[in-house]
Design brief:
By secondary structure, the chain is mostly helical. The protein has one domain: Cytochrome C3 (Alpha-Beta Complex), CATH 3.90.10.10. Helices cover 37% and strands 7% of the residues. It is built from six helices and two strands; from the N terminus they run H-E-H-E-H-H-H-H. The longest helix has 18 residues. The radius of gyration is 16 Å and the shape is globular. The termini are far apart. The structure holds heme C (3 copies). The site of one heme C has 23 residues, from helix 2, helix 5 and helix 6.
Length: 114
Amino acid sequence: MNKRILWAVVFVSAVAVGMLFSGQSHAEYGDIVLDRKMDSMKKANVKPVVFPHWFHRIRFKCKVCHEDIFIIKKGANDINMQAIMEGKFCGRCHNGLTAWEPLYCDRCHSYEGK
Ligand code: HEC
Ligand code: HEC
Ligand code: HEC
C-alpha cells in the first residue's frame, strides 16, 4: 500500500469510528441546532431540535434537500410543526413512509445544551 492510500484508509476508519459514537442525542460536530421557534417550543415543553446533518448527508444527495426543501443557510428556514405534519420540511420524509412519523417528539427535540 502506498502512503496516500494508507492515509485514506486511516481517515475513513476514523470517520467510521466517529460515526459509531455519534448516535447520542446531544449536539456535536455535523449537527445543526434548530431553535428559531424557541419561545413556542418552551411553551410546549419540548427542547430545541437537533438535526443530524451528517446522518442525512450520507443517505441522500444534497440536492434532495437543497434547495427544494431547505434553504442552504443555518436559521433561514421558517419551520413549524403544522407544516411538518402536512408533509413539508422534515415531514417530506418523516411521514411514516420514507422515515418514521413526526410523533416521537424527543427524537428531533433532543438538544441537551442550554
Ligand atoms: C435531509 C436533508 C438534507 C440533506 C440531504 C442535506 N442537507 Fe444541508 N441542511 C439541511 C438542513 C435542515 C439544514 C439547516 C437549515 C436551517 O438551519 O434552517 C442544512 C444546512 C446546510 C448548510 C448551512 C450550514 C450553515 O452552518 O449555515 C450547508 C452549507 C449545507 N446544508 C450543505 C449540504 C451539503 C453540501 C449536502 C450534501 C453533501 C447537504 N447539505 C445535504 C438538510 C439537508
Ligand atoms: C430526504 C428525507 C429526509 C428529510 C427531509 C429529513 N429526514 Fe430525518 N431521517 C430520514 C431517514 C431516512 C432517517 C432514518 C430513518 C430510520 O432509521 O428509520 C432519518 C432519521 C432522522 C433522525 C434519527 C437519526 C439517528 O441517529 O437515528 C433524526 C433525529 C432526524 N431524522 C431528524 C430530522 C429533522 C429534524 C429533519 C428536518 C429538519 C429531518 N430529519 C428531515 C430522512 C429525512
Ligand atoms: C422530524 C422531526 C420532528 C419531530 C418528530 C417533532 N418535531 Fe417539533 N419541530 C421540528 C422542527 C425542525 C421545528 C422547527 C424548530 C425551529 O426552527 O425553531 C419544530 C418546531 C416545533 C415547535 C415550535 C413551532 C410550532 O409549530 O409551534 C413546537 C411547539 C414543536 N415542534 C412541538 C413538537 C411536538 C409536541 C412533537 C411531538 C408530537 C414534535 N414537535 C415532533 C421537528 C420535529
